[in-house]
């Protein structure tokens, strides 16, 4: 266990006693509802971050490159045929990694299901859809929704994808999802349009 990790946990624990608001996962300062996230590559974990920590712990700062700032851009794409990637679900996101691998994750009532995507197939997909070449590894994803006749394809920050996974998990009822999950997913994509 690293010293800075242990110290951060102690600070967060003490701060948690002060109030129930969201706090920076690195220094325990309060953060606004719309705050930035850092990606801890070693732990594959998203961290809430205050403004100071987004500067301090990224790039050449104290984090020494261990943390990546999750970007904010959202780009709607023309429909892309993701069938050749071999993922059997219509609501899924694809994350390229710095080592050249690509994972696909789809929401479920139990959280995110994960698949490895053939790297050669992903390379062919990038040739067909040039905006995919601009994606930042680890922190941006191709988010696809072809469920119920929809055809949404976006480049989004990974925190949007995990927000969607949490939404599906929260709204899912029964074996097929019930009457709440799919309208909630449609609202999620409407909000992406408003934010972009």
Automatic annotation (TrEMBL):
Classification via InterPro entries: DUF5947 (IPR045991)
This protein's name: DUF5947 family protein
UniProt xrefs under Pfam families: DUF5947
Annotated source species: Streptomyces cinerochromogenes
């Amino acid at each position: 266990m690293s010293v800075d990790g242990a110290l951060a946990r102690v600070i967060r624990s003490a701060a948690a006693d002060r109030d129930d608001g969201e706090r920076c996962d690195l220094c325990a300062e309060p953060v606004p509802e719309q705050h930035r996230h850092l990606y801890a590559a070693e732990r594959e974990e998203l961290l809430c971050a205050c403004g100071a920590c987004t500067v301090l712990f990224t790039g050449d700062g104290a984090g020494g490159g261990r943390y990546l700032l999750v970007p904010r851009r959202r780009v709607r794409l023309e429909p892309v045929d993701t069938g050749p990637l071999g993922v059997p679900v219509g609501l899924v996101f694809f994350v390229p990694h710095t080592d050249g691998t690509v994972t696909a994750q789809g929401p479920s009532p139990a959280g995110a299901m994960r698949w490895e995507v053939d790297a050669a197939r992903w390379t062919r997909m990038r040739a067909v859809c040039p905006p995919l070449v601009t994606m930042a590894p680890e922190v941006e994803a191709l988010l696809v929704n072809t469920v119920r006749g929809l055809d949404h394809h976006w480049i989004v920050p990974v925190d949007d994808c995990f927000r969607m996974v949490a939404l599906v998990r929260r709204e899912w009822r029964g074996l097929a999802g019930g009457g709440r999950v799919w309208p909630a997913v449609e609202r999620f994509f409407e909000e992406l349009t408003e934010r972009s």
